[in-house]
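Help needed: design a sequence for this.
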């Protein structure tokens, strides 16, 4: 049993959803993408396939520098990745552009991905009860567990 159950890597401002990821037919086949994305936006499925590809590139069997990858895989039962597009220029540069927190100024794709991420995170049984070294992690035990692990 791994000391921790779940590690979710989250990347904000992922700019590559509109790149050449799916130009290669073999890559499309391996990740279940039928054709190069068409239209102005990639579908959620195409984006999730790219997230899987990105995770495989950094945590997969073909990664040459294994020490960190193997250590993380030993420490966590599951490692995943979620990529968010930019929330938009006004939000990203909120101090310069004086963003007032208005939801209408947040990029539509960013909001779409936040919605999917939160629904998955909070409807996921594995996130309801976390264990550290086999013991339930609770509000009362979190501080002592954190202090012990950092020592």
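Sure. Designed sequence:
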């Amino acid at each position: 049993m791994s000391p921790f159950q779940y590690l979710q890597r989250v990347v904000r401002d992922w700019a590559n959803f509109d790149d050449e990821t799916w130009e290669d037919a073999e890559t499309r086949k391996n990740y279940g993408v039928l054709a190069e994305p068409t239209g102005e936006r990639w579908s959620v499925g195409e984006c999730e396939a790219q997230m899987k590809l990105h995770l495989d590139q950094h945590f997969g069997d073909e990664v040459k520098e294994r020490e960190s990858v193997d250590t993380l895989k030993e420490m966590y039962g599951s490692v995943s990745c979620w990529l968010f597009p930019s929330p938009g220029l006004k939000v990203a540069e909120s101090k310069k552009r004086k963003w007032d927190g208005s939801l209408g100024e947040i990029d539509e794709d960013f909001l779409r991905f936040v919605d999917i991420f939160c629904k998955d995170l909070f409807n996921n049984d594995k996130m309801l009860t976390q264990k550290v070294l086999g013991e339930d992690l609770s509000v009362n035990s979190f501080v002592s567990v954190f202090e012990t692990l950092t020592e």
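The beta strands are 4-11, 76-83, 131-132, 135-136.
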